[in-house]
């Protein structure tokens, strides 16, 4: 039986967990486990409040993962998995304006995977390097995606889109349609 570990721990059943399913057995979905708050772009007060709550390490990891998915033009029905780790460099100077949140350079490692619907084909790429800000984390994620595409990921994504249409799941929408058409409509957000 497979259950969510977090739920078991909250219920006091941590002693019943016999095994964690971790990479390379199972890669999680992009951003899985992270919490986000959506605010209006022009709401400075809400932004200030959210900035005080932001965990920069989680933010950088999520931004790398999301950049990977954006370049792959994936959505929730695309078999893309990721695993990221970020280790702050305690010897690096604090980032300008870092203040109390201790933002500094960190080593970011991102593994990206794309798996065929039948599980017979699988591509996996990994990059790890020091990043100094969220933009560099995003670039690392985009680079992983480009390597996945070069390693055969585009063909797998095209087959996934064809399989979805064949099964009558209806035509893909948004970025999923771009995968089906083989077009690149990604944008940096």
Order of strands across the widest beta sheet? Answer: 1-2-3
The percentage helix is 25-40%
Output the helix-strand order: HHHEEEHH
Major beta-sheet overview: 3 strands, antiparallel
Radius of gyration: 19 Å
Overall geometry comes to globular
The CATH topology is Double Stranded RNA Binding Domain
Q: Low-confidence stretches at least 5 residues in length (pLDDT < 50)? A: 173-189
Specify the CATH class.
Alpha Beta
CATH superfamily: Porphobilinogen deaminase, C-terminal domain
Count every beta strand, where a strand is a DSSP E run of 2 or more residues. Answer: 3
Kindly describe this structure.
Helix 3 crosses helix 4. This protein is an alpha+beta fold and about 190 residues long. Strand 2 and strand 3 form a beta hairpin. The protein has one domain: Porphobilinogen deaminase, C-terminal domain (Double Stranded RNA Binding Domain). The chain has a three-stranded antiparallel beta sheet with strand order 1-2-3. Helices cover about 40% and strands about 15% of the residues.
């Amino acid at each position: 039986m497979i259950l969510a570990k977090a739920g078991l721990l909250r219920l006091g059943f941590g002693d019943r967990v016999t095994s964690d399913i971790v990479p390379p057995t199972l890669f999680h979905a992009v951003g899985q486990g992270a919490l986000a708050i959506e605010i209006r772009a022009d709401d400075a007060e809400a932004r200030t409040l959210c900035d005080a709550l932001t965990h920069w390490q989680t933010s950088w990891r999520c931004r790398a993962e999301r950049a990977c998915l954006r370049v792959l033009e994936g959505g929730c029905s695309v078999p893309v998995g990721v695993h990221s780790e970020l280790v702050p460099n305690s010897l690096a100077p604090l980032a300008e304006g870092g203040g109390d949140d201790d933002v500094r350079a960190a080593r970011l490692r991102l593994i990206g995977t794309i798996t065929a619907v039948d599980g017979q084909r699988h591509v996996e790429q990994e990059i790890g390097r020091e990043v100094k800000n969220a933009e560099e984390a995003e670039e690392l994620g985009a680079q992983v995606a480009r390597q996945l595409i070069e390693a055969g990921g585009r063909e797998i994504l095209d087959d996934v889109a064809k399989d979805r249409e064949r099964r009558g799941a209806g035509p893909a929408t948004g970025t999923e349609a771009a995968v089906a058409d083989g077009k690149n409509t990604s944008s940096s957000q």
